[in-house]
Amino acid sequence: MADIIQLLPDHVANQIAAGEVVQRPASVVKELLENAIDAGADSIKLIVKDAGKTLVQVIDNGKGMSNTDARLSFERHATSKIRNAEDLFQLHTKGFRGEALASIAAIAHVELKTKQEADDVGSCLVIEGSNVVSQEVVVTPTGTSVSVKNLFFNIPARRNFLKSDTVELRHVIDEFHRVALAHPSISFALYNNGSESFNLPVSNYRQRIVNIFGTKTNEKLVPVEEDTEVLKISGFVGKPEFAKKTRGEQYFFVNNRFIKSAYLNHAIASAFEGLLKNGTHASYFLNLTVDPQTIDINIHPTKTEIKFDDEHTLYALLRSAVKHSLGQFNIAPVLDFERDPNLDTPYSFKTTEDASVPKVEVDRSFNPFKEEAASKARAVAYKKEPASSWDGLYVGLESKGNNSKQDFTEVQFESEESTASIFEEDNQVEQKNTTYQLHNKYIVSTIKSGMLVIDQHRAHQRVLYEDFLKNLTIKEAASQQLLFPLQLHFSPQDIAIINQLKDDLEHTGFVFSSVNEESVDITGVPVGVPESEVSIILEQLISDVENEVPDSHFSASDLLAKSMAKSLAIKTGQSLQKDEQEHLVNKLFACKEPNVSPTNRTTFVTMSVDELDKKFI
């Protein structure tokens, strides 16, 4: 029988490896930025076009490469970071496996320009789909510039799986933030479609966070510091009152490398226990420094998940450090039963060195018995005047009573007749009432064939969704003006999303007086929307747009209607009055598609009398 096992060609092997390393343009951004940091650069520029689908370019001023190194850097498993297996447990660099550039070159058009400081000229290398097209001498500044064009040009199926530009750009910005936050000592700049999105100068860690997420972030941060033999923790957590509905601002860095860890995230949530509202998540920006020998980075192709030797110790230290910081800065309540706040020294007296001795003066001529005698004399002298004759109080009352009695009888007759009819009508309405709320979650109603059970949250979502979609389509919506303008603060990238959706939001009833770089001023909201819910609605909307819920095939109006309906719908556990229950049932069956919610989930189920009878057999 003929042999059937054979070695794969290099270009095929590289494309398979690219499937692990390069999932979307953001993956290319991550690998190129990390290479620039490993090259010792202190200034890095990232340029993207069409969310990275057309171009991802990283320019750094690092040490550069020689002609030979430039050619070898695109070979599989070619790396300058490790020499033997033991080096895998002493990693102090970002990249080490030598697969990134080879994988990227297999599925894109790559142009590399690089020059070392000691050389007069550099090298320019052009590769298309793992094939080296040219390598020439070129004049270029010291450092390296890598341009990745037409990603997945030779794998159209992978390109079709990419999301819209808005979503892909969000992933690119997320990777940019992760690298920039881990290295505040390096200046970063991001240019999107020719315009500057971020320009982050060299700064300390707190200032880097503020530069990325906006100046309003500064007042939200609580510093966390802890230094032990096992773990060193530094960074910041957000105050509980600024917790968000989404998990966007949550960053763990281990040895300056961004990681994801549900276990460590649980430690933070445990430290905030009792301080956060239901459904909200605290922000944190924490740097963890551990011995490289105690972690394994090479367990995941993207290197965002790592393995710790002693996770339980890290969990306990992290939880106690965060809890200590929250208590130290009076964020969390402190119980001290022996402390009396009335004995605290006022701030104005804390700097006083010597306390003055109080002077006591005594009136030696004071005689309390003289005053008591005088008061007794006044009490004896006082004589209460007798009340006037009580007979005078009833003079003329008889005639008034007759008139009032006659008037009262007439009034009583009229009121009895009117109220009797009203109560009679109310009793008839109550008899017609056929709805009942079960566990503050379901509305049970009777129908001819049996029983109807409605999920109140999903049903209200459907009602609101069609209302909002109608308003967006006809561009007519009622708006209620606020007594005082509402100012909300967002990060620059969130403001960009609000600007994209501003017209559609105004068609639903929002009125914006101004949209600045880091805040929006709202003077009107849709009718029925509480002022306290506005920030929650916008946060949920921004999250949905970033994560593309439901998908790129739907219009922005549809996405906006779905997001607002989800935020404003009646929640599970909310008690409804009888008229509210009936109104919701009537509105639901007046919808075009009452059977499903906007997210295609069942809104109601029916149970016939026959089905009920079978339950009792």
Order of strands, main sheet, comes to: 5-4-3-6-2-1-7-8
| Broad shape | globular
Enumerate the spans where pLDDT stays under 50 for 5 or more consecutive residues.
Answer: 379-384, 411-431
The percent range for strand residues is: 15-25%
Structural class: alpha+beta
Q: In the CATH hierarchy, what is the class of the largest domain? A: Alpha Beta
In CATH terms, the superfamily of the largest domain is Histidine kinase-like ATPase, C-terminal domain
Overall pLDDT: 80
The structural domain count equals 3
* Distinct helical segment count: 17
Number of strands: 22
What is the CA-atom radius of gyration, in angstroms?
37 Å
Range of helix content:
25-40%
Q: Could you provide a short overview of the structure?
A:
With 617 residues, the protein is α+β, with helices and mostly antiparallel strands.
Structure notes:
- This protein has 617 residues and is an alpha+beta fold.
- The chain contains 17 helices and 22 strands.
- It has helices spanning 10-21, 25-38, 67-72, 100-106, 156-160, 165-182, 205-213, 262-271, 311-328, 368-381, 397-432, 456-474, 492-508, 534-546, 556-568, 578-588, 609-615, and strands at 43-49, 55-60, 109-115, 122-128, 131-138, 143-149, 187-192, 195-200, 221-227, 232-238, 250-254, 257-259, 284-289, 295-296, 307-308, 435-438, 442-447, 450-455, 479-489, 511-515, 519-526, 604-608.
- The strands form five sheets. An eight-stranded mixed β-sheet has the order 5-4-3-6-2-1-7-8. A five-stranded mixed β-sheet has the order 9-10-13-11-12, sandwiched between helices.
- Helix 1 (10-21) crosses helix 4 (100-106) and helix 12 crosses helix 16 (578-588).
- Mean pLDDT is 80; it is low at 379-384 and 411-431.
- It holds the Pfam family DNA_mis_repair.
- Keywords: DNA damage, DNA repair, Endonuclease, Hydrolase, Nuclease.
- This is DNA mismatch repair protein MutL.
